[in-house]
Amino acid sequence: MPNWLIEFLYVLAISKRTQWAIILGVVFFVGINLLGHYMVANFELHGPAKGLQEVIAQKFAHKYDKAAFIALLSFLFLAYKCYKKDKKRLW
After folding, report:
1. 15's torsion region: left (phi>0), alpha (psi -120 to 50) or beta?
2. Domain spans in the chain, listed from the N-terminal domain onward
3. What is the Cα–Cα distance from 45 to 61, expressed in whole angstroms?
4. DSSP of the chain, one letter per residue?
5. What's the pLDDT tens digit per position in 42-69?
C-alpha cells in the first residue's frame, strides 16, 4: 500500500473531528433531501393555480437539492480543515 494512503487512513482513524464532520455532512445531506422530498410530495394547489403546481414543486425540489449540496460541501470543507490540522499535530 502506498505511504500516502497509509498516512491518510491513519490520520482519519485518529481524528474524531474529521470523522464527525464527514458523518454530519452525510446526515444533513440525506436529511435535507428527505425533508425536501416530503415537502414537495405534499405540495398541492387548488383552483386556477393547479396548472402551476408541477412547476413550483420542481423549483422547490431544486432549492432543497441545492441546500443539501451546500451543506455537504461545507461539512466536507470542515473535514478537510480538521484533517490538515490533525495531520500537522500527528506528523
Report:
1. beta
2. 3-90
3. 16
4. --HHHHHHHHHHHH-HHHHHHHHHHHHHHHHHHHHHHHHHHT----GGGGGGHHHHHHHHHHHHHHHHHHHHHHHHHHHHHHHHHHHHHH-
5. 888 898 888 899 999 999 999 999 999 9
